[in-house]
Amino acid sequence: MLQDYISTYLSKAKYERIESGKRVYAEIKELRGVWATGKTREECRKNLASALEGWIIFRLRSNVPFCI
């Protein structure tokens, strides 16, 4: 169930090249504050998954709803 949530939102991520194409930036607009960068798209996706996991943990610990 949790993995489905993560997969669903990772599939909604928007990626773009930044710093004259040297880095990749991604964000999940539906989840405020979930973004990441990386040297490659794969690294950026991995970092974004980590950011999303941190976002989930923060919300659970803080008892903040997941709804937007």
Short summary:
The chain has 68 residues and is α+β, with helices and mostly antiparallel strands.
Overview of this protein structure:
This protein has 68 residues and is an alpha+beta fold. The protein has one domain (2-61): Double Stranded RNA Binding Domain (2-Layer Sandwich). The chain contains 2 helices and 3 strands, in the order αβββα. The protein has helices at 2-10, 41-62; strands spanning 14-18, 23-27, 35-38. A 3-stranded antiparallel sheet has the order 1-2-3, covered by helices on one side. A hairpin with a 4-residue loop joins strand 1 (14-18) and strand 2 (23-27). The model has no long low-confidence stretch (mean pLDDT 94).
How big is the Rg?
12 Å
H and E order: HEEEH
On the 0-100 scale, what is the average pLDDT?
94
**What is the rounded distance between the termini?**
19 Å
Helix residue percentage: 40-55%
Q: Briefly, what CATH class?
A: Alpha Beta
- Please name the CATH architecture: 2-Layer Sandwich
Q: Which sheet architecture does the biggest sheet show?
A: 3 strands, antiparallel
Which labels suit this protein?
single chain, 2 helices, 68 residues, alpha+beta, Double Stranded RNA Binding Domain, 46% helix, three-stranded antiparallel β-sheet
